[in-house]
Amino acid sequence: MAHFSGRDLIYVLMLCSAVWFLIMFVQLESCRGGINDHQPSSLVTYRKALAAKEKEIKYLREHADSLNRRQHVVGLPTIYIITPTYTRPVQKAELTRLSTVFHSISNVHWIVVEDSDVKSNLVVDFLKDCELNTTHLLSVTPPDVKLREKDPNWLKPRGVLQRNTGLAWLRSNLNADFNHGVVYFADDDNTYSVKLFAEMRDTKKVSVWPVGLVGKLRYESPLIEAGKVIGWHTYWFRNERPFAMDMAGFAVNLHVILENSLAKFDINAKRGFQESVFLQALGITLEDLEPKASMCTKVLVWHTRTEPANLSNEEKMEMKGYKKSDSHVEV
Ligand code: UGA
Ligand code: MN
Fold first, then answer.
1. Is the CB of 249 under 6 A from ligand 1?
2. Which positions are annotated as active-site residues?
3. Are strands 301-302 and 191-192 parallel, antiparallel or unpaired?
4. Is the CB of 215 under 6 A from ligand 1?
5. Of the residues 78, 104, 155, 206, which has the fewest C-beta atoms closer than 10 A?
């Protein structure tokens, strides 16, 4: 049996401490990532983080429309919404209703076109405050084609020149190489479900769906057979109108609009033919139409019309010696 002297024991202890220090040093360096041999492991960590981010982006793209909250999602087609609007007592209420819905949609660009030759303070301030991506344009309807307050509403078309101004803006500000999306004409008094925008997001050429409470029917709708549009459920000019639907019943891919730069609405078109004039100018046929909303069986937009506000008691207030409503309070 070997004999260990006290000195041998000290040597062994010193050796053990040296090995222990070496181990500690190696561990410390690997934590700091300072040793070359550990470089690949940090690369692995980066790759994992990148893959997780890519997975998150993919999830957001696929679920953006069901997340029910507004956010910008990279690579998701933008929905360009063109809204004609004009000054009247209910205007701010209408715009507020619309903006509340648009807040729940990702990647939306709201193009508001005022029927006026000057921007109104109400719309300027409203758009500044509404926290949406907006563009404010002007296009005044000349008096000879403008519907007056007492005229029957079939007499003159509305919103036509404003929609054309919106189209002109798209064509001079967007480029098919960089901008991808879909264009929708949303009048300021209709009622829109958030779900409608999810339906139109992937429009290839032109997508279509039913519109509720229009044409003196419960709803109007494209008629579908074997997944294709074969005609129209409508009473009004059923066989005369090539695209017998309301303005709220379709959306167009942005590239189709950019590629057909002359297509627009026509202020002189026969009443009810605006949609047909525009879609024909885009070179669209029935065959091109993409039925949405569960093959046109669901109503996700309603052609509601807001009753004009009756403010007749304002004058009576004055006659009784009461103070009228404060004109500084914006309604
Ligand atoms: C129906 C259709 O749904 C409209 O798409 C179509 O433009 C209209 O008929 C027509 O015949 O021209 P309706 O409810 O009768 O709609 O029309 P409005 O909602 O009164 O007007 C359509 C849009 O034009 C609205 O966004 C409205 O704010 C705007 N508008 C109306 C103007 O910009 N200027 C006006 O003087 C009146
Ligand atoms: Mn309307």
1. no
2. 275
3. antiparallel
4. no
5. 155
